[in-house]
Amino acid sequence: MTPETLDCGHPPSPHDESTTGYASNSQGKRYCYECAAEMDRDAIRAGKPITAYLSKAPSDSMYNFEVSTWPGVQLGYAWITSEYPVRNSAWGNEILCVRARLQAGEGLWREYYGRGFGEGMVINLRPCKVKVTT
Ligand SMILES: [Zn+2]
I need a surface site. Which of 71, 76, 117, 120 has the fewest CB within 10 A? Predict the structure, then answer.
């Protein structure tokens, strides 16, 4: 059996029965999880908004959440800055405002912010405007 090769040139990532081992973009190209995460890192480097997922940070972490891509490649951390109740929400009882630190590469972190419903939920993150000090 020859291993399948995706459009990024790698075999599908290790995965369980409920997942495919690759991500597809809008053009139908297939990328392994690491390459898909690398595209998110490119967006972070470029200061573009990204869509990610929140998961619970380990209890010894100083952050509330870990931020990862949907297959679970970790991009950074997030913490709650404020939370407020919502009525009639299908998702939860409160919206969390978070700040995130996302890693675009070795030693290169950017601050992002967004609003989401917490653990296990998708979140749209936008780059914080960073003032350059001289
Ligand atoms: Zn790849």
Answer: 120
Ligand 1 midpoint to CA 9 (Å): 6
Give the H/E segment covering residue 105. Answer: strand 94-105
**What distance in angstroms lies between residue 23's CA and the mean position of ligand 1's atoms?**
10
Q: Output the CA 51–ligand 1 centroid distance in Å.
A: 19
At 3-53, the pLDDT tens digits run: 789 999 999 999 988 889 999 988 999 999 999 999 999 999 999 999 999
Neighbour count for residue 38 (Cβ, 10 Å): 17
pLDDT at 89: 65
Output the six-digit token pair for 120.
């296990």
Task: Give residue 36 CA to ligand 1 midpoint distance, Å.
Answer: 7
Give the global pTM.
0.84
Pairing mode, if any, of strands 65-68 and 50-56? antiparallel
